[in-house]
Amino acid sequence: MSELAKSRLFDLNRQRDKIIATVEERVVSNHLQAAWDNRSQGLEYVLNEAAYFEMLRLEKSRKKRHKEQYATWHDLAVKVGQQAEDENAELLASLVRDYARDIVGTFNPWVFRLATRVIPFGLNAFFNAKRLPGLLSEVHTLSSKVLVHGEIERLQRLSQRGSLVVVPTHSSNMDSILVGWALESAGLPPVTYGAGKNLFRAPLTAFFMRNLGAYKVDRRLRHSLYKDVLKTVSQVFIEEGFHSLFFPGGTRSRSGGVEQHLKLGLLGSALNAFTERLKLGRPRRVYICPLTINYHLVLEAETLIDDQLRADGRHRYIIEDDEFSDLGRVVQFASNTMRMDNPLCLHFAPPMDPFGNLVDDAGESHDERGRRVDPTRYVETDGGYAHDVARDKEYTRWLGERVAESFRQHTLLFSVHVVALAVFELLRMRHRQWDLFNTLRFGRGELLDGHALATVCEHLLDWMRADASAGKVLLGPVVASGDVRRLLDEACRYFTMYHSAPLLLRRGDDFEVGHVPTLYFYSNRARGYGYTRRLRRGLT
Amino acid sequence: VTRTQGIGIIGDDRLALGFAHLVAQRGRSVTLFSPSAERRAALRAERADPGALPEVGRLDDGVQVVDDLQEVARASRLVLLSGLGAAPEAALERVGEALDGSHQVVHADHLLHGEQLETASALIRRYTSVRQIGVAAGPLHIGELLAGKPNACEVASPFPDLLKRFKRALDLPNLRIYESRDLVGVELGAALVQIVALAIGITDATEAGAAAHATLMVRGLAELCRVGAALDASPDSFIGLAGLGNLLDGARRGSPDYDLGRLVAGGVVGEVLRQRAPAEATSLRLIPRVRAFARERDLRVPMTATLDEILAGRITPDAVLAELMSPSR
Hints:
B: alpha/beta; 8-stranded mixed beta sheet
């Protein structure tokens, strides 16, 4: 606990007002400066844009509270056109303050200790209930089954030298709870992170979200002022030495695939924080720490892929009711997870600086040839250090590519992914006239020849093992063994274990295809490595 | 001299020396490093290179030839890399020892490397810690520039400050520099159009006519756009100075690849062609790799495939026209 006690997060409550004040000052002065420099359309535009999007959001609601809020925004929209610039500046400051207050959370050390030690349905209870008697006895051994590996020692050292920004892949609402647990169990300090407002409402998580330093992200607010405040909050946290976490994929991977198109906004706040500290003459290193969260089975797989495939994706970013809101499904999932040999694995990939260079144990950056690099040189200008929006955007785009590449290299492929890909590709080959949606609709009930499936799996295993040797991907134990029989046995067991409909069933020597969309979801994890192309070439 | 002014030049080919002389003539500082110690010594002693730059009897006094890459790094943030060649790894490794994240590198390399058709910017990123990278390309002729004739080129980089600095450093009265943000597109456009130049060289030699010439050019560019799109390039870059500009220029005055096409039309193929090909012709090595790449990515490249067959001697050069006239499959 001594290392943890050093974590800035334990200081959050005392620092909260200062952080909010810094955010307010920063956002307001940036807007004023932009208006002054004619780089923006002025405060009136910013306030009107906020009012417009808020009124749009609230106008259809029948809730009394929303009607009142609508009226307030309407009044504001009328007012901003009539009042002086300094009054608009005051209005802007008060909005920013309110948003910052809503976003920045609190940290309760008591709740943290409770969560990690006592509460049965809290963090540790869910994954590490060593001290629990009887209740949920399956959970008892889960901690021994959840593997956490990778660059843990390096991250421990780096956490003493700078701010960590943990960027995980995202498949499930369980991820943030799981990462919190994984950090604690790996001896890493707790992190602050942005969590969707729905998690602050879900009964299972709300209490912890409010007390463990999470900051609230309201995805319904689409105006740029709110996004500015959010980004500035995350930047100030990093600047002030708080370790952070955010999911660069934005939301959970709907397709089941490894995220490759990352949201760069929050990733860019790491670079901004690094530059800001240099400008202030108080340099502080920032380390980007990619983390892959690898599940055999994903709690919300069915809802996620359904959402991905729905033609009308307007609400795709806010799923309010999924398996995570259903306590029964969560307990069933936990219970089934216990019956797996290696249900899930978290892998900390090599950390990098905000420019995508890898860093060593001492926190020093190195280029791809292993030469030491001074990261401050990237933001150096002719007269010191400076932010440069266009330059920094490009640096961040490059960082995003490096993180995406790291995700791909450090994703663990499990038996379910390999077999799902093989089944799906066999279906596509058998019914060439079918497009993706026909395969998803009509594939169910198809009988696949056991020998053909095993042959395709063998090819996949060969390629994957070669790729793993070349450092292009990681493999789960059964996939790494190269044993096709074990691979099919394990996948079939998992495919019938938890989901509402089985995904693949043995029928003598053959296999019956079950729920194709969920199979597709699992197969997507193994895409992006060129296996499909090679298979299609081989199968034609 | 502050690092904000002038330019560092790494290379000793015609472009590097020509630019060094012209920029120095405008009163800007130029720090030049030749990879060859022998040429560095010769340049310092004679202040001229009659082989690469016969038009210039004496290099402007503003060109400082240095023996240490670190001096280039110290003297200027902006560095022009020219003449990297087909195996630039060793040269870039040395460059990587000297340059750092504060530097802005513009290269003038129009080759694609490896099976994945990597551009020079990808290699620069791999071998150095430089991130701010750009490319200069287009129908640029040092001889014409020196003679005061109007020239134009395209410089592409996603970094606006690099573009600004490059334009300021190469502020010549008879050089118009166009800006682009599509670094990969301009690199690919400049490299891949040599394939079309070869095809046009063949048909022009067979006197197929102006219509065939134009059709082949358009179809060839469309094919290259498909390859470019697979590598995240914008099709617009293929019809800019680096792509179409280079192609029109080469077809008019005869580029190495266009001349290679004329050689092929005369029945020279296979090993003999390899021996007789102009040293600067790039399409010979490029075509089989583009074809393999297209196969891997399921891209239609009928012109490249036909040229590959011709170069290997498996079909005759008039197949270019046969392919052109055959209905699309």
